Amino acid sequence: MKKQILCALLAALCVLPSCGGSVGENDSESRGTAVEQEQEEAKASAAQKITEALSGAAVGDTVLFGSYEQDGDLENGAEEIEWIVLDEQDGGLLLLSDRVLDEVPYTDDSSGDTWADSYLRSWLNSTFLDTAFTETEQSLLCTVTVCTLREEIWNSANGADSQDQVFLLSATEMQDYLPDYKDRRTGKTTYANKSGHTGTPWVWLRCNAIGSDIRYMDNGQTADNGDVYSCNGDSDYVGVRPAVWVSVDGNPSQNLVLGENEQARLTQVGDILSYGDLDWLVLAIEEDQLFLITEDCLQTEMAYNSQANDLSWEASTVRSWLNSEFLSTYFDQEEQAKILTTTVATENSPDTQDQVYLLSSEEAQLYFYTSAERMGQNSSGRSQRWMLRSTVGDGFSSNQVEYVNTDGQINDISVQTVYASPRPVIWIQDASMLLHPVEGNVDTENLLASLLGEEAAGGESGQQENAGSQMETEAHSLMGDAVYESDRYLVNGTVLGSQYFRRDIQRITFLDSLASAPNTAWDVSAERDRSILAWVEYDVETELYNLYIGSNGVIVADECRDLFGGYCMATAIEFNGCFQIGEDTDFYRMFSMCTALESLDVSFFDTSGVQNVQHMFYDCVSLNDLDVSSWDTSQMSICGGMFYNCNSLTELDLSGWDLSAATDLSQMFYHCSSLTSLGVETLAVPANADTTEMYAGTPWDS
Question: What is the pTM of this model?
Answer without folding.
Answer: 0.41
